[in-house]
Amino acid sequence: MTGTEPAARSGSRRGPGRPAGSRSGDTATRARILEAARELFATRTYGATTIRAVAAAADVNPALVHHFFGTKRDLFAATVQLPEELTAQLPELVSGAADSADDVGRRIVRLYLTMWQEPATGHPLAAMVRTGMSDPEAADILKQVLTRTILGPLVAASGRDQPGLRITLAATHLVGLAMGRHILALPPLTEAGIEHLTACVAPAIQHYLTGPLPPPPEAPAR
Amino acid sequence: MTGTEPAARSGSRRGPGRPAGSRSGDTATRARILEAARELFATRTYGATTIRAVAAAADVNPALVHHFFGTKRDLFAATVQLPEELTAQLPELVSGAADSADDVGRRIVRLYLTMWQEPATGHPLAAMVRTGMSDPEAADILKQVLTRTILGPLVAASGRDQPGLRITLAATHLVGLAMGRHILALPPLTEAGIEHLTACVAPAIQHYLTGPLPPPPEAPAR
């Protein structure tokens, strides 16, 4: 198995004596480890998943898992990669957030609901959320990935105040929406089509991302 | 222990020979069972909690638990009673939903956040949500209680279209908000005061409860 060969010295930089093709061998091994990790995190939960178990499922040495991904926490974060569909559309969404058009909310909600509906992207998302619900550490990583990758750039581009609060309000709303539609399967949400649901939810997300929020009080009252 | 005496024939109707004071004895026993059930559902999860374990914790016969509460599902539903503070304010909230004042969203969000913040009501709510997250059946009961008791009357009073969708969108948003603030403890939500957070979230809840929603398409597209 090619994946057990000693890995390159530092990340993707290769020594000159490295045989041709090893890069794609590493890529395949890395993908196999990631797939095994996603499966285990989703079925056994985060807490019960070990690097050793992931290595066994991927048929590689545990040291190789550590080499490619670092700690279990890092490995989980790596499995929470966003689907290409989303990352490809993100620049366009971000540029939309820069002007005040009432369209960013609609586009992000439609894209998000579409991703959940497509099995190729929806199943990994559901696995992530289920894992996140079962373990506070996993939830923390999930939150960081989602907010930094999607909502952070959107809010930064909008240049509005209170970016952290905006991001968090939009994120908790969107995750709650997907939980209701795809994990709890609540009929009013499962029976609504994507376009209809998008039209209902977009104003709220638009409000959080780019709308006027009341300023925080001078002395924060708890 | 008075609670183990044979229970009345049908619910709260008593035979004439029933000793005076047995009603309050029943009440105390019932309360003790409920308290034990809340504790076990919250710590052991719904799936791992049995009627027998609840009976043992409350120091009563399992048959008495069945007599008072029916099945485990019914018992869980009974533990998910809303705090008195909320039910007392509900009629006023509902009458507010009948007019179109932009105040229902603000009042329901503030009351909801206040309940989560007070230990006496917040801890049971957190236990319910944690239990709901750990078990689909528990989640279903939790959802039914919350939507029927709080949001259902609000939306019904508003007389708006698509009540089920409105209720579900508001409920998933509110539950997600409390999860973010009180279970995941996300800093932008924990650092915001109740008044500030209420002012941020109220427009979205108002939108879902009484605002104009786009009509569903004639032939629902999935």
Automatic annotation (TrEMBL), chains A, B:
On whether Flavoprotein is a keyword of this UniProt record, the answer is no
* UniProt domain HTH tetR-type: residue ranges: 27-87
Give the DNA-binding residue ranges.
Answer: 50-69
Any Pfam family matching the protein: TetR_N
A molecular-function term among this protein's GO annotations: DNA-binding transcription factor activity
Entry keywords, A to Z: DNA-binding
Q: What protein does this entry describe?
A: Transcriptional regulator, TetR family
Low complexity bias spans: 1-10
Region annotation (Disordered) maps to 1-29
